[in-house]
Design goal:
Order of helices and strands: HHHH
Strand content: under 5%
CATH architecture: Alpha-Beta Complex
Shape: elongated
Structural class: mainly alpha
Distance between the termini: 48 Å
CATH class: Alpha Beta
Low-confidence stretches: none
Number of helices: 4
Number of strands: 0
CATH topology: 2-enoyl-CoA Hydratase, Chain A, domain 1
Oligomer: single chain
Number of domains: 1
Helix content: 40-55%
CATH superfamily: 2-enoyl-CoA Hydratase, Chain A, domain 1
Mean pLDDT: 81
InterPro entries: ClpP/crotonase-like_dom_sf, ClpP/TepA
Radius of gyration: 18 Å
């Protein structure tokens, strides 16, 4: 990644996840690995989907929601 792209990306991340630019710069090294819990604490993610089938509403729930629009 070129220097300008890195600065833009780190600035974007810094703004949206509330970590300092310097911390993000240090932590984006190739050797930086974190667990799902650490990613949530770091604010990289809001959560982790363990079962993708439970992440979406059922077809019946979707049908109920769209009844008013048809």
């Amino acid at each position: 990644m070129d220097e300008h792209a890195a600065k833009s990306s780190f600035g974007y991340l810094s703004y949206h996840i509330g970590q300092s630019f310097e911390k993000i710069n240090q932590n984006t090294d190739r050797g930086f690995f974190i667990s799902t819990k650490e990613a949530k604490e770091y604010r990289f993610t809001d959560g982790v989907i363990l079962n993708p089938l439970k992440a979406f509403p059922s077809p019946a729930a979707i049908a109920d929601r769209i009844k008013g629009f048809l």
